[in-house]
Amino acid sequence: MKLELARVVRGTGRLGVLRGLGRTAQHSLEVPGCLLYTHLGAVPHLTQDTLHTLSSLPSVTQVTLSNIAEHQEVLEEFKDGFRKFAGLHDTLLYCSLHDSAAPCPTGYTTNKTVSVWGSGGRIELTVAKFMALQKAVQPDWYQSMADGETWQNNTSRKRVRKSVDRTLAHLDECLLAHQNSQELEGVEVFGVVEGGDIPEERVRSARETAKRPVAGFCLDGLQTGSMDQALRTQLIAAVTKELPEEKPRLLQGVGRPDEVLACVEVGVDLFESFFPFQVTERGCALCFSFNISLDPERAVLELNEDERDTAGETQHNGDVSLDDQTRMTSFEMNLKDKRYHDDFRPLVEGCGCYCCKNHQRAYLHHLLVTNELLAGVLLTIHNTAHYQGFFSALREAVAGDKLDILRRRVLRERKE
Amino acid sequence: MKLELARVVRGTGRLGVLRGLGRTAQHSLEVPGCLLYTHLGAVPHLTQDTLHTLSSLPSVTQVTLSNIAEHQEVLEEFKDGFRKFAGLHDTLLYCSLHDSAAPCPTGYTTNKTVSVWGSGGRIELTVAKFMALQKAVQPDWYQSMADGETWQNNTSRKRVRKSVDRTLAHLDECLLAHQNSQELEGVEVFGVVEGGDIPEERVRSARETAKRPVAGFCLDGLQTGSMDQALRTQLIAAVTKELPEEKPRLLQGVGRPDEVLACVEVGVDLFESFFPFQVTERGCALCFSFNISLDPERAVLELNEDERDTAGETQHNGDVSLDDQTRMTSFEMNLKDKRYHDDFRPLVEGCGCYCCKNHQRAYLHHLLVTNELLAGVLLTIHNTAHYQGFFSALREAVAGDKLDILRRRVLRERKE
Question: Less CB within 10 Å around the terminal CB: N or C of chain B?
């Protein structure tokens, strides 16, 4: 895996292509970009056929051990890896530890283990079990085992230091087991940068991880709800300065468009895409604007103030908590709202997704209030397409020095 | 609408084609056959694109007023009918009163009204409101308003007589309103035959309904759980003798393969297809055999006794109740069962549906135990395909005098 950067501008992000992906090294992924999210081993609610009606999907699908660990025996018996088990075709697999859409309980990590929570409860992973799982899953790349329990406000400096030490020790053990395994030949490992909200520990974690033979870096413990955006960007800036330019940086647990924008500016390349899934789960549709090609006058007209709710704005103040993740944000519309019951427009005018081309808000409202599962199917299609469209616009903005315009468009500031 | 019969044999059913369907009279439907079921205004969980990956779908989709009545104002404002509102393409619409998968509370009919139950509670329909709804829905054919509250064991003779009288009065009122309506030109009406479990009332209802200008007949009050199969076939035989040969007979509330077979033999042409939906809802997959082309030896081998559970067999004894409808039958396998967690076979060997071609039982088991909605999507695909396949085999059996073989196959009797 190699990141070919087309453009690196301090303060406006990195533009490039991650090449040589997969065991055959034939795949690539544009950055800034996002991975395709799966929940419980499926792109939520979609058959692979329906999924592939979406154009320009990411070439990499993320699966998480919290969803998979309880299937270890079945996968070992199956022998052909998780991609085939789940019927996922034509995609690279990236295997991470936790599911960012389902924060796991804390207090269960030890010096030698971390725990993941599946549908049947907690599963404790040693490095040996973690690596056995990777052999059963057969991903193209995976995140090394890590102790990421530092995101709570009251985490002590001592606990943060311990998390960095443990995560480095896990990485060394993983790499050793990896190098001795034939099954994992050609598979790549991402090291995990921890350090909570302490800049020196973040820098130490980054420097030490960068010394190891890793293909890229996961930035952990910075998820939405754990700290405010100013502190997050400051910490990420301190970290990315320590990391080699040619290796990708994947930020875990951040998905809101405004936060994505801020993190791209300080050198993040890759994001997860659990955010559109969360939006779908609460019966909402992404409707924020990201069209930077519009002339400014039309753009202002395009912003239908009344379409969007403002529930999410409160997240900008200092009072953050993980609960916020399930709250509606200002980037979406709540289709359960009575006002949509006779709204015969598509979710987003001009959107080319299957849902917007075939259905109206009133029908989605009906499906949602009657709890018909097709609502989740159609919203997944739209929200995935919309989020991918945002990332496409993001790359265009980095290329054309238009991140400011994009930010204003996304946040709908009228002060142009 | 006209039923062209290719073959009518007493005791082996009617084979034919229902021609001249729809306002343009260009569509047709083979009988014995079934309608495409919708729940809450959608083929459960499927986008129209996914639905149309299934081959040989029925040309007629059933929608029910219980799912639609609360949208009356929205549909009147929308103006283009329910087919377009729900994004259903290329299908004829048949509008019935109740949803056979959701039995409604009794005790709410009066001389002038019947009630349907939507997600927002009870909606009382007069003939005027009923007909206004038909104008808003714009179906190709619809069931006339009827009082069907006669399926309970303790219904008195007097109540049954009243139900027949009321239903005929409703029909006359509906037909009058229909003939005076320009919007309903070209739309056809099915009269409803009531009469509970009293043969004389069944005959009276059939004779009187047949005198009216209806396009076909709905047989109501005979649903699974209301009476045993012997009584049902006896009543249906008495009714169909009174009905004109060239008009179709649609039986409501019966969907189990064994019951369908018995009812076809006494002259029923059309069925609803709520049964595969119920199977899907309980996390099961249809797996009964209906292949009558197999040579007998292979057929016996094909029947994997261990695949199927026997929960439904108890329905054959006299102790019937509507609760039985939600119980598992012997025609399906329960994929939540632990035994499937490492079963890497398709749901049904040789099945050509998307689910069976792409996924294994172990993956479906995983999706079901973790409550991922994709399970419902994939099961709907398989169960719909399997049920359509059964009806196709049923027509083949009527054509070739092989109903006995088909019955043995479906019931898996080994005494050939």
Answer: C
Could you report the predicted ipTM of this complex, rounded to two decimals? 0.80
pLDDT tier for residue A106 given thresholds of 50, 70 and 90: confident
Partner-chain contact A45 B377, CB within 8 Å: yes
Q: Given an 8 Å threshold on Cβ–Cβ distance, is B370 in contact with A119?
A: yes
Tell me, what's the pLDDT at A414? 36
Residues of B in contact with A371 (CB under 8 A): 40, 119
Q: Quote the CA–CA distance of B229 and A299 in Å, as a whole number.
A: 66
Q: Which residue of B has its CA nearest to A370?
A: B119
Q: Tell whether A363 lies on the interface with B, counting CB pairs under 8 A.
A: yes
Per-residue pLDDT at B132: 97
Query: How far is B416 from B413, CA to CA, in rounded Å?
Result: 7
Q: Which of A39, A87, A358 sits opposite B87 (nearest CB)?
A: A358
**CA contacts within 13 A on the Cβ side of A53:** 19
Q: Is 90 exceeded by the pLDDT of residue A211? A: yes
Is there a contact between B45 and A381 if contact means CB atoms under 8 Å apart? no
Listed in sequence order, the residues at least 6 apart from A330 whose beta carbon sits closer than 8 Å to its beta carbon are A288, A308, A309, A310, A311, A312, A313
Closest-CA distance, A256 to chain B, in angstroms, reads 24
Q: Which tokens is A277 given?
A: 């899934």
Which of B63, B342, B366 to mutate: most A Cβ within 10 Å?
B366
pLDDT of residue B313: 41
Token pair belonging to A285: 């549709």
Residue A296 confidence (pLDDT) above 80: no
Q: Spell out which residues of chain A touch residue B344, defining contact as CB-CB under 8 Å.
A: 78
The more confidently predicted of residues B375 and A299 is B375
Amino acid found at B347? L
Query: Can you read off the two tokens belonging to residue A345?
Result: 């427009």
CA neighbours closer than 13 Å in the CB half-sphere of residue B221: 29
Cross-chain residue pair A366–B41, CB shorter than 8 Å: yes
Q: 3-state class of B291 per DSSP?
A: coil
Instruction: Evaluate if residue A311 carries a pLDDT over 50.
Output: no
Whole-number pLDDT of residue B318: 37
Two tokens at A98?
Answer: 């936790």
Task: Give the mean pLDDT of chain A.
Answer: 89
Q: Would the pLDDT of B196 be above 90?
A: yes
Give the one of B44, B342, B372 whose C-beta lies nearest to A39's C-beta: B372
Q: Which residues pair with B62 in a beta bridge?
A: B37, B94
- Please name the residues in contact with A28: beta carbons below 8 A apart, sequence gap of 6 or more: A17, A18, A19, A20, A21, A59
Report how far residue B52's alpha carbon sits from residue B151's, in angstroms, rounded to the nearest whole number. Answer: 36
Contacts of B121 (CB under 8 A, 6+ apart): none
Query: What is the H or E stretch that residue A4 is in?
Result: strand A2-9
Using one digit for the tens of pLDDT, what is the confidence trace for A383-410?
A: 999 999 999 999 999 999 999 999 999 9
B317 reaches A (C-beta below 8 A): no
Q: Do A373 and B49 touch (CB under 8 A)?
A: no
Residue-averaged pLDDT of chain B: 89
pLDDT score at A153: 77
Find chain B residues with C-beta within 8 A of A87's C-beta.
358-359, 363
Instruction: Tell me the whole-structure pTM to 2 decimals.
Output: 0.87
pLDDT of res. A302: 53
Please indicate whether, in this complex, the C-beta atoms of B40 and A354 are within 8 angstroms of each other.
no
Q: Are strands B188-193 and B114-118 parallel, antiparallel or unpaired?
A: unpaired
CA distance A68 to chain B (A): 10
Give the separation between CA B413 and CA B411, rounded to whole angstroms.
6
**C-alpha distance from B105 to closest chain A C-alpha (Å):** 18
Q: Which tokens is B329 given?
A: 């039958």
Residue A324: its pLDDT value, please? 57
